[in-house]
Amino acid sequence: MRGDEEVLPETVAGAEVRADRDGPRRWYVLGVMLLVYAINIADRYVVSTVLEPIRLELHLSDAAVGLLTGAALALFYVTVSLPVSALADRGNRRNIVAVSLLLWSAMTVACGFVRNFWQLLVARIGVGVGESGATPASTALIGDRFRPAERPMAMTVFTLGAPLGAWLGSDLAGRVADAHGWRGAFLALGAPGLVLGLVVFLTVREPRRAALDPEAPAQAESIPLRRTLARIWRNRAVMHLMAAGALSALWGWGLIWWAPAYFVRAFGLTVGQVGASLGAAHLVAGAGVTLLASWAMGLRVFRASRNILWTLAALTAISTVPSILMLFARTPVGALAMIWAFLPAIYFYIGPSIGLLQNWVPPAMRAQTTAISVLMGNVTNLVVAPVAVGVLSDAFAGVSGASASSLRWAMAVLALTGFWAAWHYWAAARALRTDGTPGDGGRPSVDRDAAQ
Known about the structure:
77% of the residues lie in helices and 0% in strands. By secondary structure, it is mostly helical. The protein is globular. The relative contact order is 0.15. The model is unreliable at 7-13 and 435-452 (pLDDT under 50).
């Protein structure tokens, strides 16, 4: 036991677990972690909304602005996230979430005061270091508040923070930028996190580990990162699911990352106009499909992991088509309609994927496994997509300089990766048919390791 971790005396352990499982406290924790995730996404994507003004003021190429705004954050996120997640699997997860939130919020505020390339680079690195600890620790906290059968639903509710944060990072940031400049957008979105960090520290309690996993009580002990990686590596279903998530982030979120700059260049809109349009899509379509996914994950048909994966494969493949058509629409209305058509797919997969991973690994590996999965998605989304699209755009533009046309063709190359993501979901389902434990709805062989 560490810090304020909840204690369940053996004589009343069953009653205590039931009270914790069914009481209102778990929903409060889920709601607070949802808000933390929303601020995480908002502070990450505010820079995407104001990317074009930053590029113009600092006189950057598309490749340079991609490296500065996305890769700088993600590279340090990658460096820090795994050791922090290992700490979360044996330390106080509440404290990790609170400290992480306070750090990245302070650094987001600092972005509003920068005056040159290097200052913004340092501030974005600080955001990446702070954000590295939040999601793994948050999902591990939620995992110990909900039973295994409820976790896909709970994780999907948690991911409502993504559309809420994307709306804030698009609509609110765009409106503030139009009124007060791009620096004002960073100030407006960084300050609330400082308040919420204190709320997390003062009101959220650390739950007992594995209290709702009585079938694997021994797994509450610490598991080294190398063993976690080894278990993941030798399970084909887990590997395919992680690859599918990473490629979904590369495809969908990579396109969304560059969409504001493309709309400004191609259609002559202001960042406020683009932010309002994209923000509405995130809030309505994103939140709507996340709620739909949360409800769907409670249906009996989705108790079988294979059915979840087949649904993700079909949805991703179909949605890739409008993501390509968006880039060849002749009007902003037509392009925005295509975003509404493919954007739900980039939200639907998040919660079910996290829920499946939480069920497929032992409790002491949950934060580390989530960190590895989130790390892969952030590498593709924040390193590969911004830099690769920027480099391709500069190459297509040649000596004439970056333009709407060069960015369009660079994004078209990226859009094709949606089909690759769909294949990995399908491959994960096939792996479950081969490796699944009989009678468990298609859970992979790593579950046998967890039970030992």
